[in-house]
Write the structure tokens for this entry.
Amino acid sequence: MEAWGQQHGALPLLLEKPGRTRQEPPRRWHGQSVVRRVPVEYTDGRLDVADIRFLAVHSSQLAHQAAVTYAAAQAKEAAQVAEHIARVEARWFACASASAAAIAEYEGRGQGRRGRKPRPWRYHALHYQVEAVTQRQKRMQRGRPPKTEQPQDSIR
């Protein structure tokens, strides 16, 4: 079918759909519909000759659709990774063992949720590390603190 399609220059219009918006041009698929008699083997082992319809579609018309779909999938996955990173950075832990358990859960070595197996990232290598962060605690009293008062820090 590929060699047959290359022999013909301009393929006739197979299908035309209007654009999704008024600004978008109509989508057109050029190709050829060909019926060929080919041998067919059925599930019960019986052999027969049947008419099969083949559609030869020019690949550049499908390339635009594939590129749009691929770009949308990449953007969706990038948003999922960014959302995961924001969720991980928003969590604070009081000790290193609790943060190590959370890292094991993120990497798919943990227990999972509601009895399901944990789902690690399949296509991305995400690296985690534990850092001790010192944060100044807020004073509970009103007004300016005395010069002799030391600021209170907490480590997370």
